[in-house]
């Protein structure tokens, strides 16, 4: 009887460990779930435009929506929920934190919320970020963090369309910490030591929350 | 610094992504001047460029951001980067008073436009139609587009007739845009300036619904007619080169390897993802991939050999929203890239126990999984230049 219990306990333990390890192995299901699990929501998540009355503005915002979708702004400006990004809070920010030798940057809230979003930024201020990475307070975000060097290649029309679309996102209250200019990586070689790299490490991107 | 480089030579890390490229201050040659061909610009010219920025480029206006005193200091510093400012004095163009524009002046300007053959570069309509060439290289062998004269908001030196007059008589140093001072009279250049101002089309932000629809219909038709150009626009704006070009430890493009891959991205705990060679090389690039295979990577994250990609770092779930025409355009553009041989190793998984330990840290201990971008080239081109074996 005793040996029987011992054996059962042993087997249960082995199964539990094996189960836990395979759970770790397959979660998140990036390589087991169908690709459409990840790409499907990208088409439907961006809020629609039916609320816009002026047809010219609606057509422009529609173009902006397409540009925002294909450029993958959501890849950085998403808001994390308990199960990956919370796509109902489209572009409310905070999903990614960049620790770089130039400081720590957190992706910002792009919805037109009054206090925490873009409501107080003028169109020209937004276009300047999207063209040159320069913020109203004068700081310049590295182009490896917010890819303005690529976005500067947009035609002025496309940049305008993106700004118009951002103005029509549903406002989400979500306070994002301001960038902190103290270098997160001060000791040369710290990144390589920590993560086993042999060459120079730059700008590790780290999800927060 | 990101753009013009630490020594002001126009070779900052972001430089290879920008069209037009940032200026090399050490040469003392400036496009936006009110001075004669070959002359250095006046202080007022430089202050203006810093204050207002250069429209149609990534150079922002610093007017509301830094004080006038600081701007003068910056200009003084920029001048120290080139010895020309110490030894030369600017030769200002003496512009007479600006005549008022009139329909007659515009019509005469049209004649001048024909005589001086501006259409060779800018097209008969100012939009490049019928031009012999519209893409050029500047004196630093960097790509450059002839300005679209119907879009004055893209003129680097400003949209007014006065600004244009200065560009016509001084030319734009370092670019193919010549000076016309010797081939046209002062009056003819004013007429020309007025004509170019009159070409301006209505900008999108003032159009009504019909005009917006027409504008986009025309844009889409042009995109379909010229998929390579459209593909280049998409690739430049989405920023494929940011990951698919290897850079040195100062984050500057390794010469000759643009879009040739070999830039290593380590994704904790999943493993190493060296970016693939996107040039048309048959052996090491996309030369032997079918169109559908390329599209499958972009829309479903599956490589030619069946390897699945994570949804990051390459955001293929977002690329999957590209319209069919745009996907075709990207493929057409990638096919047009000159072949560069650079054999890049396939993605590699982390050693299993470490992989599980990494997942444990990520999911149970809630630690931050870093993504690290390694400068250098893990591909075969120039191997041995840097010890970069992952």
Q: What is the domain tally of chain A?
A: 2
Task: List the uncertain runs of chain B.
Answer: 383-390
Task: Walk across the major sheet of chain A and give the strand order.
Answer: 2-1-3
Give the integer mean of the pLDDT values of chain B.
81
Of all protein chain pairs, which has the greatest interface, and how many residues does each chain bring to it? A-B, 65 and 82 residues
Largest β sheet strand count, sense and barrel closure of chain B:
4 strands, antiparallel
State the low-pLDDT regions of chain A, or none.
186-209
Strand content of chain A: under 5%
Number of strands of chain A: 3
Would you identify the CATH architecture of one domain in chain B?
Orthogonal Bundle
Main sheet of chain A? 3 strands, antiparallel
Give the H and E element order of chain B: HHHHHEEHHHHHEEHHHEHE
The percentage of residues in β strands of chain B lies in: 5-15%
Structural class of chain A: mainly alpha
> How far apart are the first and last residues' alpha carbons of chain A, in Å?
49 Å
Distance between the termini of chain B: 30 Å
Helix content of chain B: 25-40%
The topology string of helices and strands of chain A comes to HHHHEEHHHHE
Coarse morphology of chain A: elongated
Give the strand tally of chain B: 6
Q: Would you summarize the structure shown here?
A:
The complex is a heterodimer of chains A (209) and B (390). In chain A, 42% of the residues lie in helices and 5% in strands.
Structure description:
The complex is a heterodimer of chains A (209) and B (390). With 209 residues, chain A is mainly alpha-helical. Chain A folds into two domains: 33 residues; 157 residues, no CATH class. Helices cover 42% and strands 5% of the residues of chain A. Chain A contains eight helices and three strands. In chain A, strand 1 and strand 2 form a beta hairpin. Chain A is elongated. In chain A, 40% of the residues are buried. The C terminus of chain A is likely disordered. The C terminus of chain B is likely disordered. In chain B, 36% of the residues lie in helices and 5% in strands. Among the domains of chain B are: 73 residues, no CATH class; 99 residues, Cytochrome Bc1 Complex, Chain D, domain 2, CATH 1.10.760.10. Chain B is globular, with a radius of gyration of 25 Å. In chain B, the strands form two sheets. Chain B has a four-stranded antiparallel sheet with strand order 5-4-3-6, with no helix packed on it. In chain B, strands 1-2 form a two-stranded antiparallel sheet. In chain B, strand 3 and strand 4 form a beta hairpin. Chain B is mainly α and 390 residues long. At the A-B interface, helix 1, helix 2, helix 3, helix 5 and helix 6 of A face helix 8, helix 9, helix 12, helix 14 and strand 6 of B.
């Amino acid at each position: 009887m005793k040996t029987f219990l011992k054996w059962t306990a042993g087997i249960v333990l082995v199964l539990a460990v094996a189960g836990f390890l395979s759970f770790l192995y397959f979660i998140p299901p990036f390589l087991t779930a169908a690709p459409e699990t990840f790409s499907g929501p990208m088409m439907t998540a961006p809020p629609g435009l039916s609320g816009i009355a002026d047809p010219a503005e609606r057509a422009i915002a529609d173009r902006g929506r397409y540009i925002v979708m294909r450029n993958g702004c959501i890849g950085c400006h998403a808001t994390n929920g308990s199960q990956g990004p919370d796509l109902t809070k489209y572009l409310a920010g905070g999903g990614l934190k960049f620790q770089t030798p130039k400081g720590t940057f957190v992706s910002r809230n792009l919805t037109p919320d009054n206090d925490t979003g873009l409501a107080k930024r003028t169109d020209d201020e937004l276009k300047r970020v999207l063209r040159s990475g320069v913020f109203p307070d004068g700081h310049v975000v590295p182009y490896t963090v917010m890819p303005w060097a690529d976005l500067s290649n947009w035609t002025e029309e496309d940049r305008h369309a993106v700004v118009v679309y951002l103005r029509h996102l549903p406002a989400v209250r979500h306070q994002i910490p301001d960038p902190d200019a103290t270098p997160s990586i001060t000791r040369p070689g710290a990144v390589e030591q920590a993560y086993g790299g042999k060459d120079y490490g730059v700008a590790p991107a780290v999800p927060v929350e | 610094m990101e753009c013009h480089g630490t020594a002001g030579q126009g070779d900052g890390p972001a430089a290879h992504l920008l069209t037009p490229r940032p200026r090399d201050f050490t040469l003392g040659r400036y496009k936006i001047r009110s001075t004669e061909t070959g002359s250095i610009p006046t202080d007022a010219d430089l202050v203006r460029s810093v204050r207002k920025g250069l429209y149609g480029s990534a150079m922002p206006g610093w007017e509301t951001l830094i004080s006038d005193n600081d701007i003068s200091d910056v200009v003084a510093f920029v001048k120290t980067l080139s010895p020309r400012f110490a030894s030369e004095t600017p030769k200002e163009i003496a512009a007479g008073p600006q005549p008022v524009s009139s329909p007659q002046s515009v019509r005469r300007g049209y004649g001048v436009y024909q005589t001086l053959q501006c259409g060779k570069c800018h097209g008969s309509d100012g939009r490049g139609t019928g031009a012999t060439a519209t893409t050029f290289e500047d004196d630093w062998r960097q790509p450059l587009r002839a300005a679209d004269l119907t879009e004055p908001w893209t003129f680097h030196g400003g949209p007014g007739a006065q600004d244009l007059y200065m560009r016509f008589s001084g030319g734009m140093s370092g670019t193919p845009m010549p000076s016309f001072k010797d081939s046209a009279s002062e009056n003819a250049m004013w007429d020309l300036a007025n004509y170019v101002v009159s070409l301006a089309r209505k900008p999108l932000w003032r159009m009504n619904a019909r005009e917006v629809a027409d504008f986009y219909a025309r844009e889409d038709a042009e995109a379909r007619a010229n998929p390579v150009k459209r593909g280049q626009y998409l690739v430049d704006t989405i920023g494929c080169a940011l990951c698919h070009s290897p850079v040195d430890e100062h984050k500057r493009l390794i010469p000759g390897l643009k879009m040739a891959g070999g830039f290593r991205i380590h994704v904790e705990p999943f493993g190493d993802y060296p970016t693939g060679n996107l040039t048309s090389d048959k052996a090491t690039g996309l030369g032997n991939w079918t169109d559908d295979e390329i599209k499958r990577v972009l829309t479903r994250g599956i490589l030619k050999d069946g390897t699945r990609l994570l949804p990051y770092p390459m955001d293929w779930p977002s690329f999957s929203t590209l319209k069919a025409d745009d996907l075709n355009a990207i493929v057409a553009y990638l096919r047009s890239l000159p072949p560069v041989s650079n054999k890049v190793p396939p993605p590699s998984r982390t050693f299993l126990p470490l992989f599980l330990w990494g997942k444990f840290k990520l999911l149970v201990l809630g630690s931050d999984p870093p993504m690290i971008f390694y400068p250098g080239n893990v591909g075969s081109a120039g191997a041995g230049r840097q010890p970069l074996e992952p």
